[in-house]
Structure formats: C-alpha cells, structure tokens
Amino acid sequence: MSRFTIYQDNYADTTIVSNLFIDEYMKDANDAQLKIYLYLLRMMSAHMATSVSDIADKFNHTEKDVMRALKYWEKNKLLALEYDDAKTLTGIRLLDVNSKPSADIVPLTPVVSMPSKETAQADKAISEKETAAGANYEKPAYTLDELREFKNNEETAQILFVAEQYIGKPLSTSEIKTILFFSDKLGFSIDLIDYLIQYCVDKGKKDFRYIEKVAISWAEENITTPKQAAKSVHKYDKAVYDILKALGRTGQPTKAEADYAVKWLKNYGFTSDIIMEACKRTVLATDKHRFEYADSILKSWYQGNVHHKADIRLLDEAYAKKKPAKQTPSSGQFNQFMHTDYDFDALEKEILSN
C-alpha cells in the first residue's frame, strides 16, 4: 500500500501536543490517562480553570479515576500537583515533556488552576484517599515470564478459558495481564473473577477497561466473595430503580441515568433519604432534564459537606438569611423549600442550553 501525507488546511484554535509525548508516553497510558492529559493541555492553551469534579463529569469517569490519572502523569514527570497547607489540590503545573526531570523544572505556563473553594472539600478527601490507597490499585508492568507462569497454572488457565467463552474471543496479552492483576494485586479468588466477568458481560460490557473499573470498585469495598459482590450489585441496582421512579421515569435506565445514580450513591456516598430529597425538589422545579438538575443539587450538597437531612435544612436557612426572597405569603413556603446555595432559574437555563 502506498504511503500518504497528512496535512490540514487551518491551524487556528489548536492545542499543541509534543511529538515526544506521542512517541514515548502515549503507548503506555490507558484511555482515561490520555483523555485527561490532552484535556489539561486544552484547558491550559485556553487559559481556563477546571476541577477534578468537572473533568470527571466531562469524561463520565469517577473523581477517583481522575485523581489516579493525575497521579500517573505526576509519577511520569509530565505534571506537578500543587496543594495548599491543608493538602487541598489548588493547581496543576504541566511540565516540559522535552526536558529531563529535575528539581527546578519550569512549567510551560501557569496551567490549570482549581476553583479555590468550590471543590476544596471534595478534592481534599479524594487526594487523601488516593494517597493512601491509589498505589494498591495500579496495574504492574508484568514481565513475559510472570505472564507465562500465570497462563501455565492449571487453576488460572481454567479462568482464562472461561473468560474467553464469556467475551466470545481469544484474550489479548493486555487482557490476560488484567486478569493477572485481579488475582495478583487485588487478591480476587478465581470464583470472584469468574463472577466479575460474568456480571459485566451480562450487562453488555465486554470492554476490559470497564471490567477493571468494576473490579477496583469492588476491591475498594473490600469485596472478597461472589456472595458479597452479588449483595453489593443488588443493592445498587435496586437503588438505581428507586431513583429512576422518584424522578418520574419508568422502565430500564439509560447508561447516563444509571451513572448519575451510582455517582450519587457511591462517589458522593449519599444515603437514600438525601437523594430522594433532591429528587423531590427536582420534580417540583422542572419536568425536563431531571437527572442533570438533581445532579446539580446533589453536587452542591456534596460540596457543602451535607451528610444528613438536617445539614440541608441548615443550608436552606443560611440561604434565606443571606438572600431574603421577595414573595407572596402563599408562595413563601414553596420558595423556602426550594432554595439552597444555587440559583434554580440560572441552573435551568444552563441545562436547557446544552
């Protein structure tokens, strides 16, 4: 086949990516790591601020996924994470890819700043958890000898065969390494790995990046048996349907809807009564884009350090004192019920414009 030349007509509004990054760093990075690094370059070139939660929302990752990716690039000396005295993430310096690592590396520009207080509590908590546990869930670079030994073991050879039947194709070297990671690093038994792959395939997910994310989430929950996994899965599946119903939806949830529900339950750690309160306010406020609307409420409560329904009442009272509403007696109770630290009219306009 003949060679061809690649060119473009317009170079305006571009983000520059180093050739060294493409040649040396890109091949070893996973999907999340690549997306997040390129997005940071984009934000830097536009002189725009972002946050861990914003990046997570944009790429449909968890905030833990984002912090793992940031720490991966920090380990590879392509960026430096900056914290204040309280260990809150306040900024990211993108380092020169073409420079050798040194103590006095100069950043390319004042890169991506983090909103100072809006996400401070969330980022601080994530950073502390990742510092303690992130290394436990980083996939090692297994050697060919380690891979060969794993494949030749009678017990693991059986799970590899079973996985191929579930996936419907021979496993690639990368996929075999991922199963080795489940066994070696996460400490999963053969039975649990079997249940994990079957569970994901039954959900229509055969991508090993997705399966790995589920495995790490189970490890973080200290799940060690198929019975524990089944109990956890059932709990969240039921909760997702309860949320769906509370927002006026029936039938099977879409992936985006399920992702929102799991985010509120697992990432934010909210109890069902808090989520139901947000759903109730959402239904009273709008009949469109309800999941996005509820997500904005719950994100605000998460950043406001809400743990109990009483905390929500305190936020409502603080809002009422800060900004007394002009209202008729008949509407006063409803307005007090609706208000927190955000403007619902502006929120609805933003949602409808997307």
In short:
The protein is mainly alpha-helical and 354 residues long. Helix content is 60%, strand content 4%. The protein has three domains: 19-137, Arc Repressor Mutant, subunit A (Orthogonal Bundle); 144-224; 229-353, no CATH class.
Task: Write up this protein.
The longest helix is centred in the middle third of the chain and has 21 residues, at 226-246. The protein has 354 residues and is mainly α. β1 and β2 form a beta hairpin. The protein has a 3-stranded antiparallel sheet. It folds into 3 domains: 19-137, Arc Repressor Mutant, subunit A; 144-224; 229-353, no CATH class. 60% of the residues lie in helices and 4% in strands. The two termini are 44 Å apart. It has 17 helices and 3 strands.
Question: Helix count, per DSSP?
Answer: 17
Query: Roughly how much helix do the residues carry, as a percent range?
Result: 55-70%
Unreliable residue stretches = 100-113, 115-120, 126-135, 328-342
- How much of the sequence lies in strands comes to under 5%
Shape: globular
Q: Which structural class is indicated by helix and strand composition? A: mainly alpha
Order of helices and strands: HHHHEEEHHHHHHHHHHHHH
Overall domain count: 3
Radius of gyration: 23 Å
Query: What do the pLDDT scores average to?
Result: 78
Could you tell me the number of beta strands?
3
List the topology elements:
Blueprint: H1 19-25, H2 31-45, H3 52-59, H4 63-75, E1 79-83, E2 89-94, E3 112-113, H5 120-133, H6 144-152, H7 154-167, H8 173-184, H9 190-202, H10 208-220, H11 226-246, H12 255-267, H13 272-285, H14 290-303, H15 309-322, H16 329-338, H17 344-353
Antiparallel strand pairs: 1-2, 2-3
Helix pairs in contact: 2-4, 3-4, 4-5, 7-9, 9-10, 11-12, 13-14
